[in-house]
Amino acid sequence: MRRQVGTCRRCFNVTANEECSICRDTRRDTRSLCVLERAQDIVVVERTQEFHGRYHVLGGALSPIQGIGPGQLRFAELKARVVDEEITELIVATNPSVEGDTTALYIARELKPLGVKVTRLAMGLPVGGDLDYADELTLGRALVGRSEM
Fold it and tell me: Cα(100)–Cα(93) distance, rounded to whole angstroms?
């Protein structure tokens, strides 16, 4: 199995082919990229049936403490895709952690000058949750990220 399974040459998803099925799907929006830390996260986003673009797997998140800088992740490939594929929007779907936030800020700083719209997943309260059980950070992010009704 190890010899048959590799990574997609375009998005770095797990695949047995040169390109994964998502990258080969002509019905996908080719101008929108969802940037993820891990290939496993693609399955989670796909289950929502709300995103119809393509993906880019970084292979982790920036973590200076662990010695993970931009050179250890697939930022150069992301930047090349933005230019080559004429991407108009990057949806940064890194984890809501210090490392994920740092990675998101780095992406925005590096790629916004290329004219691409960089957005981050909204964060806040889970559906069906009570305010009584929300921690301060989650509730604070929900307040900051509120949207007009």
Answer: 8
